[in-house]
Amino acid sequence: MEIKLTQEDLLFLENNYPSLKYDSVKNVIYGILYFDLLYPNVESIHIQDEYQLEIVLNQLIENVLPIVRETGGRIKNIATDKSLKLIDLHINENSELCIIIPPKIKEKYPNGFCLRTLIGHLQEHFYWISYFEKFGRGPWPAYSHGDLGYWDLYDEDPKKYTEFLRRKFNYSRTGFREILRKRKKTKLK
Question: Strand pairing partners for 36?
């Protein structure tokens, strides 16, 4: 499965992000994504920044989102400068950005892929990294990686994600309650 950009998508890129180019043969968007953002709930920190990226529309996550890579090496440099692992800055081992935990995809993209939503999502993601680079911490909590991220979802909204976690990890109701009891004990320590 792959994403094909519409004429509307191409006009959106051309009019709003002229530094991002579309290669129709490779079905890839590439170039520099600039942003100028202020999140009022984040100490009103205004950040202007840019990242070089590649959006591979031929490879999808959960049949909705394309693979995204930061190609300028900036995030790798931040990780090196701060003695962090790349995963701590949301880059997977295969150099792809980890921009969303799979259960959240349908919430953020309820109608499937939308280029405008993706660009805004990437700007938010890069804002987080730029903020971290400046202040040594994220502007808001990030989800943990791997299976721990799914437990973060549960902590965020137990009613919403209980059934999802039970199915994901194949827990019986009793087994799930036991896991929750153990997690509660661990958190209290």
Answer: 48
d(CA 150, CA 161) in angstroms, rounded, equals: 9
The CATH-assigned architecture of domain 7-135 is: Roll (3.10)
CA 181 – CA 29 distance, rounded (Å): 46
Report domain extents, the chain: 7-135, 147-188
Q: What is the DSSP string of 14-36?
A: HHH-TTEEEETTTTEEEEEEEEE
* Residue 70: φ, ψ to 5°: -90, 115
pTM > 0.85: yes or no: yes
Q: Which residues contact 58 (CB under 8 A, 6 or more apart)?
A: 2, 3, 26, 27, 28, 66
What ranges make up the beta strands (E) of the chain?
A: 20-23, 28-39, 45-61, 65-70
Q: Residue 140: CB partners within 8 Å, gap ≥ 6? A: 41, 42, 128
At residue 92, does pLDDT exceed 70? yes
More confidently predicted of 110 and 162: 110
pLDDT tens profile 42-88: 677 999 999 999 999 999 888 899 999 999 999 999 999 999 999 99
User: Of 44-48, 79-83, 102-106, 142-146, where does mean pLDDT reach its minimum?
Assistant: 142-146
8 Å CB contact between 90 and 97: yes
